[in-house]
Amino acid sequence: MQFKSLAKSLASLAAILGIAVNADAQTYRLPGEHTDQHRDLIAGQVNINKQIKVETTQQFLDNLFENEEEPEMDIYTEGWDSKLVNAYAGMDVPDRHTIDVSNFCMPHPGYVTSPYGYRKRFRRMHKGVDLKLYVGDTIRAAFDGRVRLTNFERRGYGYYVIVRHTNDLETVYGHLSKFLVEPDQYVKAGDPIALGGNTGRSTGPHLHFETRYMGYAINPAAIFDFANQTVHTDTYTFTKSTYQDARNYDPAANTEYAKVYNQNNPRPVASKSSPTKSGKSSGAATYKVKKGDTLGAIAARHHVTVRRLCQLNGINTKSKLKIGQRLKVR
Description:
This protein is α+β, with helices and mostly antiparallel strands. The chain contains 7 helices and 18 strands.
């Protein structure tokens, strides 16, 4: 009798533990957009092989950007509550995932002043790119999505915004001077989300821009061609082995674009009575292409996405622009 009672007690205890285990398992289930079904759908995708490894160009970059700032501490892992900043902590990340980046807008038309990569003298990764701007310049959402965080980090990013996008990416925008959005606000690609600044650990105005997939800091140059203000292709294939690599990165092209940008965007004269240059938008329905113009820069200037600009003019992202060409912008 005692044996039967003990067996029944153990069976009851096992049933209770089974329920508890199931409850804990449900607590840590992945969000719908990262289920096994979605990972299966991308299993056959082909990875893009035209990559340039960071380590092969590191010496060149160290010389080119020798006066750059110390990289920011990674807000996803260092000195922060991961539940607030990295919503993907502890989750399984697929080895490969294809992301649609066709409906994009350049966050700012500035040129790269500091690329992604490891900084030997600081012994730290720079997990984004820095883009040239002036304080008060408009910063725009790179893709459609919802604002997840607006926050301040004194010793690093300063005022920053994190947007979770419908294509599974997250983007980070740092060193801002003013927020134009609030958490949980839905934004479209090209919508203003903040004004550029010089807050946090920064010795001069610039935008620190990151692209992340489930917490992994992807090299933005793997997705965006900053010198030509566009994306390399309509899709980006994330792989754990190559997400830190750039794609078709050309320092000479960036240098040439920097010259054109500085010529077309002289330092604004401070005026209390007039808005910043970036706050103005042309009401004209067409735009005449000038030397150095790109689709991305024209789209950003007229507050439209590159996809919309292409639709209006019957062209694609690889179309060559001609000086004097008229483009519809509305």
